[in-house]
């Protein structure tokens, strides 16, 4: 049967080679920007605010994602230093990208005078659609796939389109399209975020926490199918806990191969569990302590401009008081 695999190189311009991976990531960032701009208009934010945020955030997230991946693969990269910069060949970690984006976003948002949680709430759907589209870069590169499967499982059991099935044939062996599972999970999460963000019960920061919880639930179960997971050597009880939580999936799926030399616990699985717990706890604690006072639908306040306005009013009142004092002095009889 004739199958045609996708070429990871989109086109060349002289010495410049443009990879589909980079184009897909660019489309992911652009889609996230458009969604944020549209939602931001409801709160009086200009498109330039999000454009500048993206210009700072995207490079920061890519650098952090690469550093995160390289750090856990240092045993390989210490002998191949030149490959550290070859991100077009894959090898970036989404959790690392999120860390980079959040750190950069924190300082940018604070500098602009807004509440951090209010802005990341607005950006939460953008992050999710970026991940949803970005995963298709893995599809083109034939990476971040799962364990071995039969073609019939993909075509007849899961009813996956043939162009995806063909691309999951790596060196004669078919694999779980884990990129597709995660992309579809993100799509469902995007719909949920769109529905609940208009609800009055939602407090500041909670849409972002829900995004993180949702993504991490999917990542926990999908990560175990992969064969390229970053891992570490952990205690037996933790390994049993993680495997026990994943065990309901064994009725349909088998876990992907994990090299014992690299570890027995997948880092992304453990991190996903911690994020789920932390997200739930933060929502409850912030409500109990009264820290989440504003609602998602409340008007957005620019504290920087508010402070400047208050300072101007105080200055005007002071000048008016001085003028009144001078006027009273002039009106006094000699």
UniProtKB/TrEMBL annotation:
Compartments where located: Cell membrane
The protein's enzyme class: transferase
Pathway(s): Protein modification; lipoprotein biosynthesis (diacylglyceryl transfer)
Protein function: Catalyzes the transfer of the diacylglyceryl group from phosphatidylglycerol to the sulfhydryl group of the N-terminal cysteine of a prolipoprotein, the first step in the formation of mature lipoproteins.
This protein's name: Phosphatidylglycerol--prolipoprotein diacylglyceryl transferase
Keyword Cell cycle annotated: no
NCBIfam families with a match to the protein in the record: lgt
Record carries keyword Transmembrane helix: yes
């Amino acid at each position: 049967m004739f199958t045609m695999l996708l070429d990871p190189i989109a086109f060349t311009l002289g010495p410049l080679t443009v990879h589909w991976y980079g184009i897909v990531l660019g489309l992911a960032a652009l889609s996230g920007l458009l969604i944020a701009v549209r939602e931001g208009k409801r709160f009086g934010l200009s498109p330039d605010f999000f454009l500048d945020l993206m210009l700072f955030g995207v490079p920061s997230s890519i650098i952090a994602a690469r550093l995160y991946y390289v750090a856990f693969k240092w045993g390989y990269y210490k002998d191949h230093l030149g490959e550290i910069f070859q991100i077009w060949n894959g090898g970036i970690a989404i959790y690392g990208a999120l860390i980079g984006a959040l750190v950069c976003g924190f300082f940018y948002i604070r500098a602009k005078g807004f509440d951090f949680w209010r802005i990341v709430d607005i950006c939460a759907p953008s992050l999710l659609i970026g991940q949803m589209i970005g995963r298709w870069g893995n599809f083109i590169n034939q990476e971040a796939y799962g364990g071995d499967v039969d073609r019939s499982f993909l075509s007849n059991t899961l009813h996956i389109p043939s162009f995806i099935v063909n691309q999951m044939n790596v060196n004669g062996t078919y694999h779980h399209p884990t990129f597709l599972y995660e992309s579809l999970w993100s799509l469902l999460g995007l719909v949920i975020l769109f529905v609940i963000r208009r609800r009055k019960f939602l407090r500041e920061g909670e849409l972002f926490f829900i995004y993180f919880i949702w993504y991490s639930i999917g990542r926990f179960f999908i990560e175990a199918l992969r064969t390229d997971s970053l891992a570490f050597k952990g205690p037996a009880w933790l390994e049993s806990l993680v495997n026990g939580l994943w065990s309901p999936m064994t009725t349909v799926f088998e876990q992907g191969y994990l090299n014992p030399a690299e570890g027995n616990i997948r880092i992304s699985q453990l991190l996903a569990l911690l994020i789920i717990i932390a997200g739930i706890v933060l929502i409850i604690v912030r409500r109990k302590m009264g820290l989440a006072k504003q609602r998602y639908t409340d008007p957005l306040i620019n504290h920087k401009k508010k402070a400047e306005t208050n300072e101007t009013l105080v200055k005007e009142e002071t000048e008016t008081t001085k003028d009144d004092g001078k006027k009273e002095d002039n009106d006094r009889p000699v």
